[in-house]
Amino acid sequence: MPTPGPTPVAPAQIRQDEILTGEAVALDVQPVGFFLRALGLLIDMVTGVALLVVFLLAAGWVAGVGLDLAALSPALTVASLAVVMVVVPTAVETATRGRSLGKLAVGSRIVRVDGGAAGFRHAFIRALTGVLEVWFTLGAVAGIVGAFTPRAQRLGDLLAGTYAERTRAPRLPAPVGGVPAPLADWARVADVTRLPYRVARRAAQFVRTASGLDPAARARTAAAIAADVAPYVSPVPSVDPETLVRAVVAVRRDREYAALVGEQTRVARLTAGVGAAPRGFPER
Length: 284
Description:
Elements: E1 18-20, E2 26-28, H1 34-63, H2 74-95, H3 101-106, E3 108-112, H4 120-136, H5 140-147, H6 155-160, E4 162-166, H7 184-189, H8 197-209, H9 215-229, H10 241-274
Helix pairs in contact: 1-2, 2-4, 8-9, 8-10, 9-10
Main location: membrane
Membrane topology: Multi-pass membrane protein
Subcellular location: Membrane
């Protein structure tokens, strides 16, 4: 009897918002969106213009021409532009590992496409390319390219192999409490499966945000949601509206979690049994 070969394994699929490291580990990261990148770039450009004015004033003072900017020599002007457009951005991003004033404001940093920290080479390529796509075109080229790339990468990012990663993770919602103690026996026999998705979502959202509501608005909202929930709950406990809503949300959450755990357990058992030898045949 021929021995069945190994079960083929489907290739892993990497989504556009995942990063594949050198160890073939997919990292689920959050790139900064187009509008936040544009805002950060605008802040950096305004900072650069202010720094350029300071450099020109300082260069004029050193050259002994006072504040007459028109009398500055072309060499000093070109040197000031090079410092502001290339040297300063490269030095700042290298020293801060991909941060700048604009990126700090929007909560982002520049990293390599594999998720590693960007270095001098990446910062220099981005700054050098930025002279054309940011300064000479007032950000038009950067905006056009960023609008058509998955991670809002500008031309300098594509050449340097970088992108802007989000550093401010959204705050997790407050955990939903369990079933109130007086309703523990009711929770074992309650039927909440007929609750429509729209009503269930509204109830869960209320439970997460109830602590921040005005007491009067909280009571009115709880009463309205409880009126929508009650027709789909059996039996309906004799409690106040907010307690009813909290109990229904907790019961649905616990049962959905138990179902997921049970499904994972069954899948694990089936997977473990695939490699087992059939009864009556020795294992090879």
